């Protein structure tokens, strides 16, 4: 009977495991191999160069500049998105004042409507979002500059996507706008599972809203927060689609990121070997940061 059980398990797993190896593990292995060649991508000839491409990555000023932009996104995006998500989720779930001034824990009025509005950007295609924000940032007739002029702040008008001083900040603003709503809904769902009696007891004992959030709410929703941190780190190390459509890395490479530099190296410079080395380096950076983050954010039970 024991023999039949293992035979059933193996027969059930062999196909999905084989598909995973072929379509997921195999491409990673091929990328590592290509990264050690000078293959141009469009010919059958190539030369083995060993680790030369990886050594070149470490001293490539264009790659290091792109890495610096990803580091800025890595610091800013997760912090802003998680803080904004936690604040809005807390207001939606526990922000109400209760009836007749009592201590009952309630959400704000229209909480369901707010969740829909916040989540709406997450259902749109990233291409649609980027094109829409191009119109918002348009320097002459764009919504942002028009709003600034309408409220008497015309001196703040900028060529947002065309100025090296503001292009990266504009991209980061779009990334925060796109992602925050999803995490508002995620954190709201986690907070909804907290028994309201716990929150009410803390308020009755004299704890203020901040202490209640810090001491009770945040520890109880820490697992979703940790998951959000990991996903946002991975997203901040990518940023390819938003950057390519909004600025294409410009002006003067002021907003280029590692993924876009890898794409340009492969398809514009026809250097797939070096592009693969950039991709493998990006993979290693992502794995290292993810592992470190999991250890640093782990909470003892």
UniProtKB/TrEMBL annotation:
Its main location: membrane. InterPro entries: ABC_transporter_permease (IPR051393), MetI-like (IPR000515), MetI-like_sf (IPR035906). Residues 67-293 form the ABC transmembrane type-1 domain. The chain crosses the membrane at residues 7-25, 71-96, 116-136, 167-192, 213-237, 272-294. It holds the Pfam family BPD_transp_1. Keywords: Cell membrane, Membrane, Transmembrane, Transmembrane helix, Transport. This is N-acetylglucosamine transport system permease protein. The lineage of its organism: Bacteria, Bacillati, Actinomycetota, Actinomycetes, Propionibacteriales.
């Amino acid at each position: 009977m024991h023999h039949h059980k293992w035979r059933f398990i193996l027969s059930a797993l062999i196909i999905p495991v084989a598909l995973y190896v072929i379509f997921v593990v195999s491409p990673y292995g091929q990328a590592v191999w290509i990264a050690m060649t000078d293959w141009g991508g469009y010919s059958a000839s190539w030369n083995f160069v060993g680790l030369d491409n990886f050594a070149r990555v470490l001293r490539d000023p264009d790659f290091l500049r792109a890495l610096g932009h990803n580091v800025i996104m890595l610091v800013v995006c997760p912090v802003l998105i998680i803080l904004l998500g936690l604040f809005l989720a807390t207001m939606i779930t526990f922000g109400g004042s209760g009836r007749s001034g009592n201590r009952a824990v309630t959400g704000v009025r229209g909480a369901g409507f707010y969740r829909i509005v916040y989540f709406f950007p997450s259902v749109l295609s990233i291409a649609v979002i980027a094109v829409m924000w191009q119109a918002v940032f348009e320097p002459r007739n764009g919504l942002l500059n028009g709003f600034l002029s309408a409220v008497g702040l015309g001196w703040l008008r900028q060529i947002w996507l065309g100025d090296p001083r503001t292009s990266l900040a504009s991209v980061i603003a779009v990334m925060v706008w796109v992602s925050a709503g999803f995490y508002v809904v995620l954190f709201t769902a986690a907070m909804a599972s907290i028994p309201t009696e716990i929150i009410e007891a803390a308020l009755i004992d004299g704890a203020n809203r901040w202490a209640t959030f810090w001491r009770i709410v945040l520890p109880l929703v820490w697992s979703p927060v940790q998951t959000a941190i990991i996903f946002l780190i991975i997203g901040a190390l990518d940023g390819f689609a938003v950057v390519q459509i909004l600025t294409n890395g410009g002006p003067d490479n002021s907003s280029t990121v590692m993924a876009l530099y890898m794409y340009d190296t492969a398809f514009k410079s026809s250097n797939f070997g070096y592009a693969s080395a950039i991709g493998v380096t990006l993979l290693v950076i992502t794995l290292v940061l993810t592992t470190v983050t999991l250890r640093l954010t782990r909470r003892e039970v």
